[in-house]
Amino acid sequence: MTADSVGYIFMNAAIVNNFVLAMFLGICPFLGISAKRDTAWSMGLAVIFVMLVSSICAYGINWMLTRFEIEYLRLICYIAVIASAVQLVEMTMKKYSPALFRALGIFLPLITTNCAILGVALFQTSREYSFTQSVAFSLGAGVGFTIALMLMAGLRQHLELAKVPSVSQGAAMTMMLAGLLSLAFMGFAGLGASHG
Amino acid sequence: MSGLPDTTEKITLDTFLRGLWEENPVFVMLLGMCPVLAVTNSAINALAMGLASTFVLVASNSLVSLMRHFIPKQVRIATYIIIIATFVTMVDYAIQAISLDLYNALGAFIQLIVVNCMILGRAEAYASKQPLGATIINGLGIGAGFTLALLSLGTVREILGSGSLFGVALFGENFQPWVVMVLPPGGFFVLGAWLLIFAWVGQHRQQRMDQQEVAQHDS
Amino acid sequence: MLNALFSSRSFKHGVHPPDFKALTSGLPIRRLPFADKLIVPLSQHTGKPSIPLVKPGQEVVRGEPIAEADGFFSVPQHAPATGRIENIRLMPSARGPKIESIILQVYGGSTQQEMYEYRHDVDAMNTDEIIQAVQNSGMVGLGGAAFPTHVKMKPPPEHRVDTLVANGCECEPYLTCDHRIMLEQPDRLIKGIRLFMRALGVERAVIGVEDNKMDAVRVIQKHLEPNDTISVMDVPTKYPQGAEKMLIQSVLGRRVPPGQLPSSVGVGVFNVGTLAQSGELLPLGRGVIERVVTVSGPGVERPGNYLVPVGTPVRFLLEHAGTTADAKEVILGGPMMGMTVSALDVPVTKAMSGMVVFEHDQENHQGPELPCIRCGYCLSACPMQLNPSMLGMLATSSDYETMASDYHLNDCFECGSCTYVCPSNIPLVQYFRIAKSVNRDMAAKA
Amino acid sequence: MADSRAVKSLRSSPHLKQSVTVAQIMRNVVFALIPVCAWSVYAFGFSVLLLLATTTLVCMLSEAMFCRISGRTSSLGDWSIVITGLLLGLTLPPGFPLWMAAVAAFVAVGLGKALFGGLGYNVMNPALVGRAFVQAAFPVAITTWSPPFLPGRFTELIPSTLTAPFMMPEPIDAWIDQKSIDAFSGATPLALQKFEQVSTPLTELLTGTVSGSAGETSAIIILLGGIYLAARRMMDWRLPVGVMLGAVIVSLPFWLLDAARYPDPLFVLLSGGLMLAAVFMVSDMVASPVTPLGVWVYALFIGMLTVVIRLFGGLTEGVMYAILLGNAISPLISLVTQPKVFGERNKS
Amino acid sequence: MLNIVVAVGFMAGLGLILATVLVIANRRLFVYEDPKIDEVEDLLPHSNCGACGTAGCRVFAEKLVVGELQPGACTVNSAEMNQIIANYLGVELGSQEAQVARLACAGGSNVAQRYGDYRGVESCRAAALVAGGGKGCAWGCLGLADCERVCDFDAIIMDRHDLPQVIDDLCTACGDCVDICPRDLFSLQPASHRLWVACKNLEKGDLAEAECVVACNGCGRCAADAPGELVTMVNNLAVIDYSQNTHASRVAIERCPTGAIVWLEGGVHKGQEAVKIVRKEALPLK
Amino acid sequence: MSQADINTAVVDPGLTTRMLRTLGLVAMLSGLLVVLTYRFTLPMIEENKRLAIERALFKVIPGAVSRQDFVITEQGIRRAEQNTEGVTLYAGYDQEGRLKGVALEAAAAGYQDVIRILYGYDPYCQCIRGFQVLKMAETPGIGDKIIKDADFQQNFVALEARAHVSGKGLEQAIVPVKHGTKTEPWQIDTISGATITSKAIARMLNDSAQQVVPIIQKDLAIVEAGL
Ligand SMILES: Cc1cc2nc3c(=O)[nH]c(=O)nc-3n(C[C@H](O)[C@H](O)[C@H](O)COP(=O)(O)O)c2cc1C
Ligand SMILES: Cc1cc2nc3c(=O)[nH]c(=O)nc-3n(C[C@H](O)[C@H](O)[C@H](O)COP(=O)(O)O)c2cc1C
Ligand SMILES: Cc1cc2nc3c(=O)[nH]c(=O)nc-3n(C[C@H](O)[C@H](O)[C@H](O)COP(=O)(O)O)c2cc1C
Ligand SMILES: Cc1cc2nc3c(=O)[nH]c(=O)nc-3n(C[C@H](O)[C@H](O)[C@H](O)CO)c2cc1C
Ligand code: SF4
Ligand code: SF4
Ligand code: SF4
Ligand code: SF4
Ligand code: FES
Description:
The structure holds 6 protein chains of 6 kinds.
Chain D: E1 9-10, H1 22-44, H2 46-70, H3 80-90, H4 98-112, H5 126-137, H6 173-179, H7 189-196, H8 202-207, H9 219-231, H10 238-257, H11 265-270, H12 274-281, H13 292-312, H14 319-336
Helix pairs in contact in D: 1-2, 1-3, 1-9, 2-3, 2-4, 3-4, 3-5, 4-5, 5-14, 9-12, 10-12, 10-13, 13-14
Chain E: H1 2-29, H2 35-43, H3 57-65, H4 79-89, E1 99-103, E2 117-118, H5 124-129, H6 146-150, E3 156-158, E4 164-166, H7 176-180, E5 186-190, E6 195-197, H8 205-211, H9 221-225, E7 231-234, E8 237-240, H10 251-254, E9 261-264, E10 268-269
Helix pairs in contact in E: 2-3
Chain F: H1 3-11, H2 13-60, E1 66-73, E2 76-79, E3 87-93, E4 99-109, E5 114-122, E6 127-135, H3 145-148, H4 150-154, E7 159-160, E8 175-177, E9 187-189, H5 195-218, H6 220-225
Parallel strand pairs in F: 8-9
Antiparallel strand pairs in F: 1-2, 1-3, 3-4, 4-5, 5-6, 6-7
Bound molecules: flavin mononucleotide (FMN) (3 copies), riboflavin, iron/sulfur cluster (SF4) (4 copies) and FE2/S2 (inorganic) cluster (FES).
């Protein structure tokens, strides 16, 4: 696979340079929403969806900004549009699909302040991805986020049944677990790049 | 909300100090973790990031505080974010102008200050309710707490991971750096270790306090 | 199809505890003398307690009904001996709570010859009459569950029963009472089976016997006619082969679905003791007033199989069999499922098949409880194919609801196989009992 | 007796207990490991002896310390920590500096085990947590191999072994060149295969006359240990078998496709730490699923992932990371592979 | 200069577009939820204990806002906070007779017989399932502290005779202990009730006293002394009819020979004729 | 709240204007602030960027002191002007304005992520004279040997990249070989222990050189004309 093939971009974002475990993006929700598997799953889905939406928005905005030669407004535009898009999605969901809203909705405001979302938009721009590449990248990032979240949730829920010493309960242990996961993900380094 | 108690804060020393420890955004509130982990592989990066975030925090929150009576609830998040993004962009260009190396080292994380939950969180929870003075002082405190936390990670990671501090080699030629410390897992581990230490100390202090209380009851 | 290929002659999993049956399997059944006082609990069966028919001070003849059934889901009680009713009051029971019991002052030996009975011509009776006669005899499952036998003879109408399975496995270590019954009373057993077959309207009966009791198989075979509708089948010796679901799987290859009764797969299961006693009692119209009890274990001086009047205090039985100085733990039933008693004043009840006495508790329980190391031994022991490891971990964090809702707690029949193998000494079954008990309470309160 | 006074014990059933205990299981694993260690010491010399002693001792000391701190009763008696120590030592290169080995051992116990509450509660294989940590911390030292059967290996230590704490080990190429007759490439069979497409003869792999980690040497001895444990039911045979199966499933098609470029399945099985890992590490019960189906899924996952990393990743050896990742998804595997209750019918 | 104009113009346009979108969304998609619910929920203690009779604090807040319940129903919150909520919502504070958990057993290890030495999971429920746990009295407290463990408010501590003691000030009447006790010994009682029977033993006379020195032996003196039908004997046990609580008085306890019926007022008071318990250590196994 | 209240809360006409006004104003304000900052910092940033490129450039083109940018378009090499599309090529000249070499960017996937370098090409000896890493995320201590390892740098004293006579591709592809086995000038002696990273360098150099070297040779005059 070559470095700019869609497959490589997807896998690189999802696994090799996992957004959470290797790039440190979206740590706050990763720590916050990984206590229970089902919420983790819903959050993951919500993030994938919002990433896709904002990646597409960002692609469009960037095109416009470049035409007007006001690239320096990129950050503001991205974040404003993403935030509004999230809010819009949230409201639409609340109105038309309360069930889906109950499953995903509570996470949506959290996503607004999730570096991973903005990270996708910024990286795809700085790496000059094409439209399909951007989509692959955002999907990969979302899937990678979900993988990390689910693994973490599995471990944490499993540890609820353990007699964890009181000092290491809570944030400290979560952090160490994340470290261990990150350590394990180092095994994926170089995956998919040709090494012949 | 007439019935609710008035929560406007009087400025005291505590307004500032709280951010350093009790409400430390990193160690206590676990906010804004991404830059904390991502850019602390050297002390200088940590410091720069801390200062940049503090600037954005104080500046944007001041503006939010000033405008707090004019912003309708429905658009408040959008407004806050635009304000924050403005200051972030300014910092971004400032750092590029100062040093490209530093800019490259901090990577995209300068821009990602925008989404640092700490800043938006403070805007929502504090600046939108408090007057300018308190906001600035509190913002400075929180920012200092954030910088302190970044530094406490950055120094440990740099010393162990590269054998240097602020770029100055400490141990001579033959020192074996612990590469893991500057890699992603190291960030988690060092932060986890700090949290462990704090939890441990906290627990011991709690125990001592309990004992004292018991002793008082007995006498 | 694949199932048929891979299913062995027995159920999956299970354990192989040492059986210690040689202690008593060669000893014929002996009659135990009467104790001075017998205690007949009004509730020694599943279902509603019986209603006393007698008053304090009243004289009763051996075998006379002294309490009547309270509706269909209940059984009467009969006087185990001739004597005078001393009192009717709360007495300790083996399970803990005190229950209403009839206390009988027994007259001296010679008066015990008279028997209260009411002969029937059983061959002339129809189904309902047989079932009524079974209820009148006060028969309950002698295999340990003490479920009223006549209730089991009337399966729900939507189930069609086609086979009777006689449970002669006796998979519990130490116990040999069913073994002795099969050896000594094969005629009564077969009579009982034919009677029950008629009542249930089935064409076929299988007696399942573990293959460590081949002598019993041979004896029974001798009593069968050629091409008999009754057959004997030896099944592998493995605990808990005697659990009805396992036995049905072993002899018929049918699997009773979770939460269902054997009749859902067309089977009725009865213990051989139940059948043999029914075969003896029904024609005479007598009630259940005694049963065979194996008394065994390292703490017993004279192990054996005793024919014990119902209501005999455990203390009396122990005195008779003799216990060693170090006796420490008295278990009613077998060592895998039986329970220890604290008060020796509790009486022998209809469902009590054995009494095992242990000396030192260390010998069977080593060391403190350790965390589950997830060795998976319990999973490969559990005959119900549950996940005791997960259940145990959930129990230690008191998540009883999840145990029932997600991990089939209620399908556990507390056989103890998981606890038996657990290298971490986790008292899994005990946790499961706690969990079930809490869930029951919560359901009752809700 | 008659006197009720003698009868007092009240217990819940069952009143019989099979006699195998956790400590016995662990002790037997140690027994099975001893021949592996012995062969390793024989092949690489005193350096490995010191290495194994260091990891085991530091593991035991750390365990004792953490038990003290957290107020647990000491768990040294259950032998599990000895296994951790030995296995950790066996996964390190023979000339690995002892101070780094001590770091690995401390991290293994602290981060891998004590943090979560000790035996039974750890979520990842402690020995491998320790090794992964030093692999990331000291990537150069942990990829510095020395050849087996050097003359003088019982009289002289590999120079890097006794590196002073916190110092960089000195390069050992010169020392090896001086010792060995043929030129030593410093590469393990896996690296040779991956980067030069040079295959190592299977007999050498079987008997362990190749360079590599201290314990990834003789496949035969490791297998014998595994068979012993499996026969005594102290190890789940499905785990190693599953791992090997998984490895073959992935490597076979590639080999058939391009035998020059991809290694043959037998080579995949015998080279690197796969054997040691499959027999002694994947089989660690604590961090693997318990459900019958889960066991297979887990083992196959690890086997397949190992080969994927080996063939397409940046590393030559993937088994350590594969196991750690397997540990990480083990709770999820357990969850979706709950066994079917007796009598439950397939939903059709 | 043009540059600046373009930038400012663009941003203004963007701002207006976003605002318009939000305005429209706000109109079209708005789902009303009373903001007071959030405000009130913030003022509640977040214990989610259920003492108020709802499924949790959020539900309670919802019911408060619509006026179905009154703030006083939360027994965990401080009185001031409840007053704040009441003021905020402009409703009556309302009140609930303060309740506490009361234990109907006084048979600590120094007075109650034990026959068996229970070994196994340290839990009353577990013991109760093993032949009753070895306690002589089949109704009495097993002393293995299930209630102490279940109480989230640390309102129960086991005394040195392994008998739970409720600290009235801490008890929020959440009822967890009532649910957990396998012997059903706890019940929630208005804190103002003074007369209390601390026994559930249904045995009579010597049989009862043989199992526990402080058991109600069913002698009936309290029933005879108490005014009206306040105390009656049911199954050999004194039962207090709290609907007649108005004429409760200490006379009922004075002649109790075992001290099973007590008067609660700044501590536990027993009648003059009650046995004096001097024994401090546990009774030996019998 | 009654239903009527709810409706007014939503349809409050003042609210709409306030929302529009606030967001619009804030957005304008922010636009203004940003654009001012941008204008103010632009020269410094450009200067910084130029310095950074030149620092790298002059390192990979020994002897160069000034530079000129070109773009390789489909028609051949053109001077870089705004909006010329194609691969940028930086030419370095000495004091006298003589061409000392050209520099190009190349990239390939390394151990962790994509590695980007700037390499210097000497069109007269037809060889690569050095490279500078622009961006890499390789493991410190291993991957960064490509910078620090003297043996490895030795490869680039004069790494042959001769254009094929056909005018397409190289005569000899640049290939990595195992450490210590370099015999030909077009081979790269890899670093043992960091094979992956060093092979990535070889791969990216080869890929890039195969493309651009023939073109440079063809249009050398344009580049030489330079300043
Ligand atoms: C028709 C019929 C109805 C039964 N109903 C019940 C019942 O409602 N509850 C029950 O526990 N057992 C019932 N049983 C008895 C069970 O099959 C079983 O014998 C009893 O639960 C004890 O089983 P065990 O000794 O294997 O534990 C019934 C049996 C039959 C044949
Ligand atoms: C674990 C377990 C083991 C059992 N073992 C036997 C046994 O060995 N013999 C037996 O007759 N019943 C045994 N039973 C009871 C049977 O399941 C079933 O209830 C009984 O055979 C029905 O006959 P009964 O009602 O006549 O007692 C066992 C039950 C369980 C749960
Ligand atoms: C933590 C870690 C980091 C590594 N980083 C690099 C790297 O940056 N560059 C690289 O080429 N190989 C890296 N490797 C891979 C190994 O060193 C690999 O074995 C080596 O590249 C193969 O080269 P060899 O055939 O010369 O041994 C790393 C390995 C580990 C465990
Ligand atoms: C078959 C078997 C394999 C084991 N493998 C390991 C291992 O790979 N690493 C380890 O740290 N402990 C191992 N142990 C020991 C023990 O399970 C380990 O210390 C626990 O993981 C610590 O909680 C093993 C034990 C057994 C029985
Ligand atoms: S006691 Fe329950 S869980 Fe344990 S083996 Fe028996 S049926 Fe399975
Ligand atoms: S047998 Fe015991 S230690 Fe093993 S998995 Fe089951 S509960 Fe855990
Ligand atoms: S009151 Fe009930 S729960 Fe509490 S210790 Fe006594 S028996 Fe146990
Ligand atoms: S558990 Fe019982 S004692 Fe504790 S607060 Fe609830 S009601 Fe009161
Ligand atoms: S800083 Fe909170 S998600 Fe990144």
